[in-house]
Amino acid sequence: MITAERKPFDEILDLVSGKKKILVAGCDTCVAICMTGGEKEAEILATELRMKAQADGREVEVEHTAAIRQCEWEYLDMIAEKVEAADVVLSMACGIGIQSMAEKFAPKLVMPAVNTNMLGMPQEHAVWLERCAACGDCRIGLTGGICPVVRCSKSLMNGPCGGSHDGLCEVTTPEKEEIECAWHLIWERLKAQGREELMLELRPPKDWSKSSSGGPRKMVREEAKPV
Amino acid sequence: MTENGFKAGSNLEKVLAAGKFAVTGECGPPKSADVGVIEEKAKILKGYVDAVNITDNQTAVVRVCSMASGVTAQQNGVEAILQMTCRDRNRLAMQADILGAYTLGIKNVLCLTGDHMSFGNHPEAKGVHDLDSLNLIRMYKDMRDDKKFQCGEEMPVAPELYIGCAENPFADPFEFRALRLKKKVEAGADFVQTQCIFNVPKFKKWMEEVRALGLHKEIKILAGITPLKGVGGARYMQKFVPGIDVPQAIVDRMAGVEKGPASQAEGKKIAVEMIKEFTEIEGVAGVHIMAIEWEPAVPEIVEAAGLMPRPAVA
Q1: Chain B residues with CB-CB distance to A181 below 8 A
Q2: Nearest residue of B to residue A159 by CA position?
Q3: Which of A106, A193, A218, B106 is surrounded by the most beta carbons within 10 Å?
């Protein structure tokens, strides 16, 4: 799923500074599952904004709502009335949802209340790990079902670099958390499958034109178009 | 291929081709526009090494670029091995830079992935990693041997390069490390310099695997050496540098001498002992001495290891 984290409260305050009618709009799909931007989180943010305004002695109206999916036009129709009534919308959807709202209701001011961070999965409760770069050219059939593009810190195609140690990546994150070496995992997985010879073949340079390096991507399914 | 049968005809290639035990050094460019630093380091190493690695923003810290520093080193009498990392350049830049370096007289290149940005002084930088080091090796080989750019287009004049790579016998998974060198040989590497070695038994085990694969006959292997200045550095590398394996016995030995001239002498002594041991290992074609910000140690070590004078090859 797409995951996101709420922006720091002060940054959100700056984004809606001076506005009298604020609508906090959640999205009940991906960001609700990662407990960042569903209806419940939208309600919490709306409450925080009201309390802050009250404490500061400002008169601000804060409403909240949620769309089933902010990234599809028809679901946005369902919250149109509330959006039209607001001076600014604080969208808690991923970057796709926020842009859909901004386009659908242009020139309405739509601001992001979250930072969209990855295509990931919950490894355990409340812990998400990145799993896909949406690179447009999936090769995990050759790597034991483990993606080196996004799980290797250097997106290597031909095995681990010289910094792999004890199954860990050389990279130190700002949070000082350990990162598993993707290529060590791939080696072990391929061995378990009896296919480790796959790692001995020289893989050619990746075609990044199929990723965002090729410009914004567009997908058309002619067969699925209405007749 | 050059007219006399060499791939590049660099001094390093000739020394290795002649079967002489090669010595390479390392020179880190400065973190400022001070050309004097490179000149000074080159003067110290001149005559004591067959070629010197010019690092490329090592540990992801910005420095004078390896191409300019390599040219300065060569102007001061030391042949350069241009380090090229995949971290800072895409395939366009890596091809443009090697063509440029070659037109300025550089003949040796070392293909590296590069330390991650998180280690350096610009941790917010976007890492490029368009190619990995194996694809970089193959790209340069194709430029040299087939006169082809990575895209397949042809060029009239190819850069005649002696292509190197690095390998770390101490990284994991260990059982893949010799196989990784095999991949690099197949990609087109002519020589390899290893990560600095402190755990000699483990290096010997890796060399056994390398020989079992017959790689020592296909690629020139230079064993990495880093002389220790004191016990602090040994402990730091043991604990904090990923992929460097410092056995406790080495730490204890450095701890047993007083910090300063005594510990520096001990560090150089260990380096000399290791070099002598490496000359006895079948398949080791030379040593790569990385005296990090301690270049004056190199002439003494090379001398004490009995590797002087350096061979003059035509």
Answers
A1: 172
A2: B180
A3: B106
